[in-house]
Protein 1
Amino acid sequence: MTPKSNRMPTGSVQCDNTTLHLLKANDFVAKAIREKLKDTLVINVCSSPGSGKTTLMQETGKRLKDKIKMAVLVGDPETERDAIRIREAGIDSLQIVTGGMCHIEAQMVLQALEYMDLDGLDLLFIENVGNLVCPAAFDLGEDFRVTLIACTEGDDKPKKYPRMFLTSELMLVSKADILQYLPFSVEAVTQDARDINPDLEVITISSLNGQGLDEWCDWLLKKVEQKKGLEVVEN
Ligand SMILES: Nc1nc2c(ncn2[C@@H]2O[C@H](COP(=O)(O)OP(=O)(O)O)[C@@H](O)[C@H]2O)c(=O)[nH]1
Ligand SMILES: [Mg+2]
């Protein structure tokens, strides 16, 4: 017997069936998020588990919290641990517990926004679940997708997980403070990532010794101004 999901609709009007197109449904919700956050820069932060996303949120918060109003939504399959770490750095943060799911979906973000103070918010980070595969497929209504790749992960990952790098605007090569101990080439990882996405920007950072964080924060501040439609003064 044919499974129900395979049966074709009958009748003369063929409507797109969003229950059969999960990603299309996700796109509708992502659009609603964009409409809700017209003046807030939204950054979707992706990487493998342990690449340094939360540590970067903490360090970015310390540097920018007196300049702009920012908040972090953070997703993990279980625990509040990351949101607690980020709040300890003085940044408003809310945990999305996905209940085992390997990525954040737009509807989770839209629901979480109900509990956040969005008034005058300049920058919202969404720290995605650590995973280089599934999160690449889900638009969260972000303006930019930023993917971290830690030098401990090996410089061969962009070609193995191309969609994440194809859909990102910026790649952060993280943990640069231990680069000297590892067989990892920033040039090779950059070349491989740009073979996939020639427009990808790249910054090498360390949240421990601060390398590259000024450049990262300047990148963010410029994007915040652009989002608000303010003129960006180059210096
Ligand atoms: N050496 C080094 N370790 C880091 C850096 N950033 C984070 N870590 C460490 O990497 C581990 C995972 O960091 P975390 O921020 O929780 O990663 P996440 O899972 O991507 O959010 C922790 O033990 C951090 O202390 C860094 O810039 N350099
Ligand atoms: Mg984390």
Protein 2
Amino acid sequence: MSFDPGMRASMNGRTLRLLQEADIARLQMIDVEAHGQAWSYRVFLDEVEQNDRVHLVAQTDVGVVGHASAWIDASSCRVTNVAVAAQQHGQGHATAMMLRLIDKVLDQPHVANLQLEVRPANRRAQRMYSRFGFVPVGVERNFYDRSDGQGSTDAVVMAIADVSSDTWRERLAELQVAHDHTESDRDTGAAA
Ligand SMILES: CC(C)(COP(=O)(O)OP(=O)(O)OC[C@H]1O[C@@H](n2cnc3c(N)ncnc32)[C@H](O)[C@@H]1OP(=O)(O)O)[C@@H](O)C(=O)NCCC(=O)NCCS
């Protein structure tokens, strides 16, 4: 599978592009801040090299501000990481990355469903995923490493069961429109 590595600038100056090796050190810092730990350099390199991965990086004029990644197998896609630098929260970066990530994943016609894991206490992330139509489908026991000291080791599993559903496709389209609108308002100074 191959993905267009082309850059696309949004109206607010954010660029979404594929992960490059040169991004790894910065993303490890963002992940330590966001999750308390980060993937090793080797694991990140696999993200660059393996063709069953989609790994997007968001960049603004201040540099790399976040990333979002997914692994694709026969019929399902697992969102494996979403993180934005703390000082950049609330600017739509994660929403923009998720929209683009899902767009890329939907280019693969064999993908039928999407899945991810999230900490039970991480309401903000769960709220974002819910906006995308992810619903809780179970609990993965001891999913998180106990050594990270961030509470429960269980994960809530959230999923979109059928990406071909018209209802879900409409929801996604509405989310894209709402996101574009928010960004446009922000650019023109209409947003608070
Ligand atoms: C969860 C996380 C990825 C969200 O990143 P973010 O870039 O702040 O997310 P967004 O800006 O897209 O959305 C966050 C909020 O900003 C609002 N927002 C502000 N500007 C926006 C815009 N232009 N477009 C869309 N939403 C915007 C959203 O409505 C949302 O509101 P809410 O939190 O009240 O629901 C981020 O908090 C993070 O990195 N957390 C630590 C790591 C983590 O929890 N990762 C996910 C689980 S693995």
